[in-house]
Amino acid sequence: MKAELEILVNEELHRRVLVETLEDASRYVWIATANVKDIRVSRGRGYVSALDRLAKLTKRGVRIRMLHAGVPSKAFWESFHRQPELASGYLEMQQCRRVHFKTIIVDGTVAYMGSANFTGAGMGARRAAARNFELGILTSHPSVVRALADVFDRIWMGLSCPGCALREQCTDPMA
What we know:
Elements: E1 5-9, H1 11-23, E2 28-33, E3 40-43, E4 46-49, H2 50-59, E5 63-68, H3 74-81, H4 84-90, E6 91-95, E7 102-106, E8 110-114, E9 135-139, H5 142-156
Parallel strand pairs: 2-5, 5-6
Antiparallel strand pairs: 1-9, 2-7, 3-4, 7-8, 8-9
């Protein structure tokens, strides 16, 4: 990350967040999204599943957590099951119907925050005519990254569960 804060639009999200920033992860990646689909990420002249990239990170010892609201797509699960590293616990997932924020935090040093879900249309991985109009911020500003990580961690740990109005409908409460 060169600048302390970058504003990203559409296809820049794909390149800067999904390709460059994730590639630099050495300890952990935390992803929060409402929707989860099998994003195709550029590699060389082609595209691979983002889960292929996440699996490569886990081989380097990177731990991945994903908070999501919706049920992941069928294509996501198909790609997930092709990656034994992910299926054996290196990718932890928790579903909370209240999660609607979108953020990706890498090693506690850089974070994306914006409107894009973890989907191809959201992260700019689809052709221009099929992608959403999205906007996000990529930052290495320590207090911003820390604040985003604190929000993620509070939800991950279930600290919001006891007072949640949807708790009775939750299939697997975090706390």
